[in-house]
């Protein structure tokens, strides 16, 4: 077990070195970014607990990937496998646990750790060969794949909107809208194989515009029920609603441009930090959007041509 | 016509393609054979424009890649995308409007299932179907027969023969000599990043004997099998 975790540690370090970060600086940056983000979240929203919990669970859930668990089961016996799964989930959750304790959110802290342990012990994989239907089948792939992975979020967001209208809490409605925005944002976090970019017979600029157009259309489609419901119920707040909606568009476009700005590589840590900073200081987008856009054009030029 | 002049490719210090000169004519089928690591896939990636290279690759097209269907040795699939969505994705990329996809499913693939759950052979057939529906003029097929069942092998061979009639240019790499001999007009033998032989159809049988003698030699005797 010790050897396994040492190997995981080494792999993590290699990933950081691949990002071009010296280890000490990398860890310092990671801890600082985590603390800054956590502080910002708890200072600025009433729903920090929930967002925090969701973030921790989504991070931990990556360890539950079927192929990965299959591999672990093939090399460890049942007892060791369960121990490893429990240990890695709890270790991954430690930063969140510590910050929740610091925030005196004891109940949330216990609840989160119970969920994290359940995630380690329960098997979610199903052998049922069922294809989740999606309204985005005709225009693969980001929303097609993303929707299937996160389809359960949308009923929750729509339910939150309903609750916000029922109790007259506009902020909760905006939160629901932002949840959909963040989920769509996550669809663009992974770089596709260069083959799928190469296949396009358009220029880099046309390619990016095509991606933005698809993203805006589908994001609008998913958010329309929330937007309409909130506009009707909170007519006085419609300006705020429009501002948040435009902000969602802007961040989505930024993410698409950032994604291809280091093509064919994944978004690197410095780009990630820039995006994270822009969440705290949105005017940064005025510089980031043209910067990421011009870099993407340059990078995409290697496989797409004018 | 595709003309390759003095094509070289380095990965760091390692030279994987060494001053290759080749020409591919319209309506002809070309086979590329060689050991694993000889440089076949890299050559294909350079022609497709997926890799930077030294030298020249010219064609009659403004952008060769826009007329080229590329079948990779191991096609990549997204985790939650169905067979039909994969085909749609590749068609959308070339602005091709697809009609009657079910009728064109000549390999009888379960198109409504996630492509990532397909077997190796099914994945290959799906990737091939997708590029066939892109209406390309040139095809690069990297190991098209690998992992594919015998029935589909026959279909692929017939498709390649059909391409010849349609004046398409096809480049195939394969380790199955019989399929190359049945379809190709010319075969290039690659070794260590170089084209060491160009063989016309009339000499295919000699090439096979030569390759057998060269490759097998007395290697198996060394095992002293009992």
Tell me about this structure:
The complex is a heterodimer of chains A (306) and B (226). Chain A is 75% helix and 0% strand. The longest helix of chain A is centred in the last third of the chain and has 30 residues, at 204-233. Chain A is mainly alpha-helical and 306 residues long. The model of chain B has no long low-confidence stretch (mean pLDDT 91). In chain B, helix 2 (83-93) packs parallel to helix 3 (120-132). The N and C termini of chain B lie far apart (53 Å). Chain B has a 6-stranded mixed β-sheet, sandwiched between helices. A 3-stranded antiparallel β-sheet of chain B has the order 2-1-4, with helices on one face. Chain B has 226 residues and is an alpha/beta fold. Chains A and B meet through helix 7 and helix 10 of A and helix 2 of B.
Q: How can the largest sheet of chain A be summarized?
A: none
Give the CA-based shape of chain A: globular
Beta strand % of chain B: 25-35%
What radius of gyration of chain B results from the CA coordinates? Answer: 18 Å
> What share of residues of chain B is helical?
25-40%
Mean pLDDT of chain A: 90
The assigned structural class of chain B equals: alpha/beta
Helix fraction bin of chain A = over 70%
Seen as an oligomer or otherwise, the chain set is heterodimer
Which descriptors would you attach to this protein?
heterodimer; A: 306 residues; mainly alpha; B: alpha/beta; six-stranded mixed β-sheet; 9 strands
Nutshell version of this structure?
By secondary structure, chain A is mostly helical. Chain A has helices spanning 2-18, 23-44, 48-61, 66-75, 78-102, 106-121, 142-150, 153-167, 170-186, 194-198, 204-233, 238-260, 269-280, 285-300.
Secondary-structure blueprint:
The complex is a heterodimer of chains A (about 300) and B (about 230).
Chain A (H helix, E strand, L loop, with lengths): L1 H17 L4 H22 L3 H14 L4 H10 L2 H25 L3 H16 L20 H9 L2 H15 L2 H17 L7 H5 L5 H30 L4 H23 L8 H12 L4 H16 L6
Chain B lengths: L1 E10 L2 E11 L4 E6 L5 H9 L5 E5 L9 E4 L11 H11 L26 H13 L5 E5 L7 H16 L3 E5 L3 H7 L2 E6 L2 E7 L3 H13 L2 H4 L4
Parallel strand pairs in B: 3-7, 3-8, 5-6, 6-7
Antiparallel strand pairs in B: 1-2, 1-4, 8-9
Helix pairs in contact in B: 2-3
């Amino acid at each position: 077990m010790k050897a396994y975790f040492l190997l995981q540690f080494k792999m993590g370090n290699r990933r950081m070195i691949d990002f071009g970060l010296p280890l000490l600086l990398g860890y310092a940056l990671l801890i600082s970014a985590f603390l800054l983000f956590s502080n910002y979240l708890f200072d600025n929203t009433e729903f920090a607990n929930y967002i925090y919990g969701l973030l921790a669970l989504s991070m931990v859930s990556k360890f539950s990937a079927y192929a990965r668990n299959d591999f672990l089961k093939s090399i460890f016996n049942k007892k060791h496998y369960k121990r490893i799964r429990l240990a890695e989930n709890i270790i991954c959750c430690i930063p969140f646990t510590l910050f929740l304790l610091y925030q005196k959110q004891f109940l949330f802290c216990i609840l989160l750790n119970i969920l994290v342990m359940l995630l380690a012990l329960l098997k979610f994989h199903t052998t049922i060969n069922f294809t989740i239907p999606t309204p985005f089948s005709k225009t693969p792939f980001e929303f097609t794949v993303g929707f299937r992975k996160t389809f359960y979020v949308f009923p929750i967001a729509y339910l939150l909107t309903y609750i916000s209208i029922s109790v007259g809490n506009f902020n909760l409605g905006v939160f629901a809208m932002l949840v959909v925005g963040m989920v769509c944002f996550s669809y663009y976090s992974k770089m596709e194989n260069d083959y799928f970019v190469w296949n396009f017979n358009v220029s880099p600029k046309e390619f990016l515009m095509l991606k933005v157009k698809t993203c805006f259309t589908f994001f609008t489609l998913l958010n329309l029920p929330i937007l309409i419901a909130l506009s009707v119920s909170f007519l006085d707040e419609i300006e705020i609603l429009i501002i948040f909606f435009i902000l969602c568009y802007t961040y989505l476009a930024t993410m698409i441009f950032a994604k291809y700005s280091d093509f064919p590589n994944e978004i690197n840590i410095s780009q990630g930090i820039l995006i994270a900073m822009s969440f705290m200081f949105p005017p940064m987008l005025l510089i980031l959007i043209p910067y990421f856009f011009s870099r993407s054009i340059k990078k995409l030029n290697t496989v797409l041509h004018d | 016509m595709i003309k390759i002049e003095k094509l070289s490719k380095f990965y760091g210090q390692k030279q994987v393609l060494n001053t290759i000169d080749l020409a591919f004519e319209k309506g002809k089928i070309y086979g590329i054979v060689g050991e694993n690591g000889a440089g076949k896939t890299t050559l294909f990636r350079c022609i497709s424009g997926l890799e930077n290279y030294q030298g020249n690759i010219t064609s009659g097209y403004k952008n060769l890649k826009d007329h080229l269907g590329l079948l990779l040795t191991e096609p990549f699939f997204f985790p939650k995308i169905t067979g039909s969505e994969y085909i749609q994705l590749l068609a959308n990329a070339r602005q091709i409007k697809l009609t009657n996809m079910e009728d064109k499913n000549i390999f009888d693939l379960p198109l409504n299932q996630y492509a990532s759950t397909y077997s190796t052979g099914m994945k290959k057939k799906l990737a091939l179907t997708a590029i066939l529906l892109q209406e390309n003029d040139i095809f690069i097929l990297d190991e098209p027969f690998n992992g594919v069942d015998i029935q589909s092998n026959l279909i692929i061979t017939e498709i390649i023969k059909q391409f010849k009639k349609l004046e398409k240019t096809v480049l195939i790499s394969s380790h199955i000599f019989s399929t190359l001999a049945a379809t190709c007009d010319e075969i290039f033998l690659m070794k260590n990043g170089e084209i060491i032989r160009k063989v016309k159809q009339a000499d295919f049988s000699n090439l096979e004997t030569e390759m057998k003698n060269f490759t097998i030699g007395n290697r198996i005797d060394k095992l002293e099998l009992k």
